[in-house]
Amino acid sequence: MLMMDVDNTPPRPSAAPDDVLIAIDQLSKTYVSASGAAVHALSRISLDIKPGEFVCVVGPSGCGKSTLLRLLAGLDGYSDGRLLLDGEAVAGPSRKVGVVFQAANLLPWMTVRDNVRLPLRVGGKHAPAADRIERLLAVTGLGEFGDKYPYELSGGMQQRAGICRALARDPEILLMDEPFGALDALTRERLNLELQRIWQENRKTILLITHSISEAIFLADRVIVMSARPGRILADLHVPIPRPRTFDDIVLHPDYARLAKEVRGLLNAQEHGHD
Ligand SMILES: Nc1ncnc2c1ncn2[C@@H]1O[C@H](COP(=O)(O)OP(=O)(O)OP(=O)(O)O)[C@@H](O)[C@H]1O
């Protein structure tokens, strides 16, 4: 008998394998509420994300999606488990990571260009790559708006500026928490198309949280479905639909219908679990 036929599965190595950029291993997070009660937000989440993958996370409200993103961004500490970015334990915010939240949070007294440039200045780079900033503005349709102030922009444009700012330092990983949640449906679809294009051009690794099943399937290589709190992973669904995708085409795709039904079924079961 060949030795390799024997099932002696090795223990998980301490560093993630080369083809894993984000390694989440048995990750748990418990908050202590103002009244002193323990709030179990995440329970033993395990998930590996490869470089260049586009992963969308859906789940019921309060299931710990934003918590997961904050832990990945190094903005909060975890209670148990392991969290590695590029083989290194997350111990705080990293230059490898850009974050986009639901509100663009642009500084109102700075122009769009200065807002986008801000992470480079804060990061101590004295000669921010002007070309790069201009290219980012152009790619996101803000080429003509660099000198404007945030109040002069629509909500969708502000959100695009927020994406530019997150990309300014050329991070390997982009974490997006409901980035288009506050926008009208058409603007949201347009920005989904733009994000698809930006991702295809740059191949960042993206983890995006959304409440929209169609947005998740449209954008993702994988859709992760989380349970009600404490958040666990219920399903990790591969989206085999070729890119570039359009909304008109994708809704007619049999895999779209199959995946949407599966995700909806899982989420509905969670809602009923609360009854
Ligand atoms: N700082 C905190 N202190 C105590 N509890 C918290 C804290 N932050 C979040 N929680 C709780 O942890 C749970 C998960 O919150 P989180 O914001 O991660 O959920 P979510 O899935 O992103 O929700 P939503 O979809 O509504 O944005 C919730 O019950 C929330 O009340």
- The CATH homologous superfamily name equals P-loop containing nucleotide triphosphate hydrolases
Averaged pLDDT, please? 88
CATH class: Alpha Beta
Q: Low-confidence spans: pLDDT under 50, at least 5 residues?
A: 1-14
- Provide the succession of SSEs: EEEHEEEHHHEHEHEEHH
Strand order in the sheet with the most strands: 6-7-8-3-9-10
Q: The CATH topology is what?
A: Rossmann fold
Distance between the termini: 55 Å
Describe the sheet with the most strands: 6 strands, mixed
Bound molecules: adenosine-5'-triphosphate
> Which value, in Å, is the CA radius of gyration?
20 Å
Task: Work out the helicity level.
Answer: 25-40%
Shape: globular
Number of domains: 1
The total count of strands amounts to 10
Percent strand: 15-25%
Query: What is the correct CATH architecture?
Result: 3-Layer(aba) Sandwich
- Helix count from the secondary structure assignment: 8
> Structural class, from secondary structure content?
alpha/beta
Describe it for me?
- The protein has 275 residues and is α/β, with parallel strands linked by helices.
- It has a single domain (50-76, 89-273), classed as 3-Layer(aba) Sandwich (Rossmann fold), CATH 3.40.50.300.
- Helix content is 33%, strand content 22%.
- The chain is built from eight helices and ten strands.
- The strands form two sheets. Strands 6-7-8-3-9-10 form a six-stranded mixed β-sheet, with helices on both faces. Strands 2-1-4-5 form a four-stranded antiparallel β-sheet, with helices on one face.
- α2 runs parallel beside α4 and α6 crosses α8.
- The radius of gyration is 20 Å and the shape is globular.
- Bound molecules: adenosine-5'-triphosphate (ATP).
- Adenosine-5'-triphosphate (ATP) is lined by residues 31, 33, 39, 41, 59, 61-67, 229.
- Residues 22-253 form the ABC transporter domain.
- It holds the Pfam family ABC_tran.
- Keywords: ATP-binding, Nucleotide-binding, Transport.
- Belongs to the ABC transporter superfamily.
